[in-house]
Amino acid sequence: MSSEPTRRIVILRHAKAEWSDGDDHERPLADRGRKDAPVAGRWLAGSGIIPDLALCSTSARTRETWKLAVSELPERPRTVYEDRMYEASLGELIAVLNEVSDEIQDLVLIGHNPGMHALADALAGEADGDLLARMNRSGFPTSAVAVLAFTGSWKAVEHGVGRLVAFWAPHA
After folding, report:
1. Which of 13, 49, 77, 159 gets the highest tally of CB atoms within 10 A of its CB?
2. How far is CA 95 from the centre of its chain?
3. Rounded distance, CA 85 to CA 47, Å?
4. Mean pLDDT value of segment 152-160
């Protein structure tokens, strides 16, 4: 039996945003997004996962998504708004994860596609049932949540390290 702690990464894609010709970083949520984000928060609360830390992109739509989702949780985790998560590549997201303190057991990331989907897919070396196929079929829509479990240090997070244990989307 491993003495390594089991950790969980909750990957939350921001809720549906308004389209704009203006600054992409400042796009607000659309009406549907403002309805779906709390539903994602309720799903997370019902999962029994209480994140120790939230890392959220600095964009308006991710900050608004997290504000609406976290209000549904029984406890509010410490939240860090991370510039590097805006338009982050898979490699950049893994680098952010590798910097997380090993004091953190459960972490939630709030970010953007294609990065959130790529991260969930890359880390999932295994999956419960048909979760990986369902996640990939869905394309990881807005407000989708993937939960991956792994053992070991955050510094060791890399491709295939985790097991996809849950996938949820509000309209899937």
Report:
1. 13
2. 15
3. 25
4. 96
Write the DSSP symbol of residue 105: -
- Amino acid identity of residue 83, one-letter, is D
Picking from 97, 93, 63, 95, the residue whose alpha carbon sits closest to that of residue 79 is: 63
Pairing mode of beta strands 106-111, 6-13: parallel
Which pTM was predicted?
0.96
Does the pLDDT at position 20 exceed 90? no
- In order, the DSSP letters of 79-136 are EEEEGGGTT--HHHHHHHHHTS-TT--EEEEEE-TTHHHHHHHHHEEEESTTHHHHHH
Query: Which 8-state DSSP code applies to residue 72?
Result: T
Give the Cα separation of 45 and 32 in Å (integer). Answer: 20
* 134-146 core/surface letters (b: 16 or more CB in 10 A; e: else): ebeeeebbbbbbb
Tally of CB atoms within 10 A around 172: 14
Phi, psi for 42 (deg, rounded to 5): -65, -40
The pLDDT of residue 2 is above 60: no
